[in-house]
Structures are given as C-alpha cells and as structure tokens.
Write a structure and sequence with these properties.
The structure holds two protein chains of two kinds.
Chain A lengths: L1 H22 L3 H21 L3 H25 L4 H5 L6 H20 L21 H10 L3 H22 L11 H5 L3 H4 L12
Helix pairs in contact in A: 1-2, 2-3
Chain B lengths: L1 H10 L2 H34 L19 H11 L10 H17 L18 H22 L3 H32 L4 H7 L8 H4 L1 H14 L11 H4 L9 H26 L25 H21 L5 H28 L12
Helix pairs in contact in B: 2-11, 2-12, 3-11, 4-5, 4-11, 5-6, 6-9, 6-13, 9-11, 9-13, 11-12
The chains are: A mainly alpha, B mainly alpha.
Amino acid sequence: MLIEALFYVFGAILIAAALGVISARNPVYSALALVMCFLTSAAIWLLLEAEFLAVVLVLVYVGAVMVLFLFVVMMLDVNLAELRQGFTRFAWLGWLTALAVIVEIVGVVWARGGLGIDAGRGATPTAPTYSNTLELGRVLYTRYAYPFELAAMLLLVAIVAAITLTMRRRTGLKQQDISRQVAVRRADRLRIVKMPAEKRS
Amino acid sequence: MLETLATTWLSLPDYARSTVWTLVITVGLIICVALLTLWERKVIGWMQLRRGPNRVRLFGLLPGVGQPFADVFKLLMKEVVVPAKSNGFLFRLAPLIALVPALAAWAVIPLSPTVVVSKADAGLLYLLSLTSMGVYGVIVAGWAANSKYAFLGAMRSAAQMVAYEIAMGFALVGVLMATGSMNLGTIVRTQEGGGLSWNWFWLFPLLMVYFISGVAETNRAPFDVAEGESEIVAGFHVEYSGIAFALFFLAEYANMILISTLTAVLFFGGWEGPFQGYSWLGLGDTFLGQPSFLWLFLKAFCLVFLFLWFRATFPRYRYDQIMRLGWKALIPVTLVWIGVEMLLAVYRIGPWSRAWYH
C-alpha cells in the first residue's frame, strides 16, 4: 500500500520533471529538471528492489554526466529566440514521436502475459539476506564476463577517440615544465649577498 | 525507569527508531559543526601564536565556547540579500542543495556495533553518489547569483570535484577489494583485530589518495580555489549573506566531518578499538579492549584536526597544479596499487588471508 502510494508520488514527480525538461524556457532549468528525472527514476528503481542500479544511476548520471551538462549549458550563450523558432512548424513531428512511444508503452502493458511481462505487479519481494549487488556482480563476472570486458574495451576506445578528437596542439604556446619547477633547488635561483652595515660617516 | 524506557524503545517500530536516530545524528552533527568552527579558530590561532576567540562564554565554561552560537544567532538576525538580477528561486535553493547530501550521507555510516540508521548493502556506492551530488549546490549557487566571481568559483569547483571524485572512487575500489563488501558495517567488521589489521596498513597509498581527494572534494585549503579570497573574493558564495551563507558554511564543515569519519571507517577500523586482538596486553574485558563509538569519535577527531592543520600550514595550490595532481599523480597511484592488491590477493597476503576470501 505504502509502496504503491510512493510509486505514484514518484511517478507524478518524474512526469512533471520530464515535462519541465522540454518546456522550460531556460536551458539551465531544463538540465536541473533532467537531474530531478534521474533522481526520481532512481527512487522508483529502489522501490523495485534494484538498489545497485538505482545508486549507479545517481552516481553516473547525476554525479558526473549532468554536472558536465550543466557546466556546458551555463557557459553557452544560448539564443533562446532562435531556439524557439519553428517550434510550431516541427511540433507535428514531436507529437508523432510521442504518440509512437505511447503506443509502444501501452502495447507492452496490454500484451502482458503474452510477452511474459506482468506489468501490473511490483517487484518480487526477496529475503533480507539477498544482496542485489552481490548477485549482479556474480553474473557479470562469470556468465557475462566476455561481453562485460568487451563493453569496457569499447568505452576505453571511445575515451581515447574523444580525447584525440579534442586535442589541439597550438604552436608558440608557453608552457610550464612542472618537473623542472619541482626539481628547482635554492642554489639555482637564490644568491645570498653579504652586506656589512655601513659605518655612519 | 531505565528498564521501561529500554523496553518501550525496543517495542517501537523500525521506522520510528530510525527517525529518532536520524534526529539524534543530525542534531549531534550540527552541534559538532558548531564546536568544530570554534576548534578550528582556536587551533589556527595557537599555530599562529594567537589566542583565538576568547570572549563569549557559555554557562561560565571556558572562554570562547559560546562564540559559534553567538555567530549563528548573529547570522540568523541578518538580512538575506538577494541580488536584483539573480535567479531568486535557484539562489534560495542552492544552500539546501549543498546541505542535504552532506546530512543524508550519514544514513549508512555505522557509528557503533549496533547503531546505524540503514544497513544498506550498497552503502559505499550510496556514499559515493551522495558526495558527488554536493557539487550541485556550488554550481547552482555560482550561476544563480549572476556574478562573475561567483560563477568563476563555481566553474573551478565543478572541474576540481569531478577530477578528484575519480581518484576517490578508485581508492574505494581498493577498499572494496580488501574487505569484500560494500556494506560499511561489514567493512568495519572485516578489519577487526587490532591497529595493524586495519586497512591503512595494506592500503596506505590509497589512504593517502583518499584523504587528499577528500580535502579537495570539500574545497578546503590548500585546494580552496573555489573560494580563493585573494583572487575571486569568496567564490561561489560571494553574494550570500546571513543564514544562507551559514548553510554553506554548515555544509562545508559537515562534509569535513563526513570525510574524516569515512576515512576512519574505511581505513582505520571504524568503531574497532586499536588494542583488540592483542591478548598479551590483558585489556580484553576493559573498556580499552572493546569496540565502541568513542574509538570512531577519537579517530574522526584526529583526522578532522589534519584538515585544520593543512589550512594553517600549506599555501594554496595553483589551479593547473590541482588538475595535475588529481589526474597525473593520484589516479595513477590508485591504479598501480589496485594492481598490487591483485597480486596480494593471488598470494593471499594481508586482508586476503582472512576468512571471507576463501
């Protein structure tokens, strides 16, 4: 009962925040609404006893990805009038996409049983000793070890690619050689001059 | 009287008990923060051959003890100025965004063998995700104030926090490998057996990385470029006044205590006593040989002292030096040590000779 009530509360917040993402006039508000979306979906996952996934969602998307997003959005000088141009002209495309998504969701819900998805039921309650994290780790590192490693390699390649794409070598740039800075000794830079006090003439 | 209290306490439902604990921990933490501000000013004063605050007494106690409370009441009475061209809603929201993660993180921290609000299984990840959310308070504050200095401070702090979080996460991976659990209570229990069996011994480089990243993550000196007074006035909270400023202050100090307590839990055995497991000392049943909250408090207290010591000692890092240290020194250290841990695990040395690993 309580869980259902919580689900509807979080669901309402999630939908409101998602609407905020696309309707906010200020892109910073959009980004913050997206953060709210991630947080509430993490809460819904927690209700489904998927605590590992919920925490990782917050850790990766809220903690890292959205910080960078917000960073960029705040730095950009977005021309809002230009952005909103053609909003009505392309609105039909948006409605069509939304309709397609709604049809898909409704289809899944209606096809429950047929597809083996019991959409009307919550998570199967597990014993208090059951560890979601442990089970996930066990499967990930035994049964799906190769796909997991492959995904990791893919991410590594993506990182290297992203860095090489954005790396620019500018000529004539004055750079500090930190190792030389660190290796400096007093004798290299400082000369102590003995200056005996002058006699009053 | 005491017995009836104890039985009513035990007969309370779980949520009531955790609510009471939440209140106790939050209020205790806020009082600790108040006393920590005084302790900081005193310690730095002594280090600089001054006396520190010594005027306001509280109940005739030591001179200076009333200072933080006097400061809080002063800040409460002052007007919270909202700059004319700022974003009022976010400007008012930002101190709360900064404060809430600092308080919420305490939910999974085991204070004593029996006291913990939530025995969450993914406790370590929960902590990592909450500490990574602290940066939002800073960014939102810096942007909403609509001031150049505040914005510069927010940008600096965001880049710094994202960089040091990675090193911090890797250090936690090392702890995970050594204890085999993400539940903080289990992490403490696997370190049982006296001062030398705590994680700091086998994970010393990771301890260093974790604590340095912790100092950077809380934006404390020598990593306080986010509010570097000499360059950008007060950084992200330059436009804040009155109690809104006090909330940022509270969040910063609560984070300091949090990082210290976490270091104590992850690397120094939490509530385990340093003399446990040395039966030849003959301390078995006495207070010194038993685990208790006081050990955790003592360890956290010593670690918090390091924060104050750093602030009184080190000059501020330059921004490029901070980035260099984070990316090119701390992260490689953690990576190498995780490799070393792998070897230790293969040959069952140190923490990996314990029962959980078999």
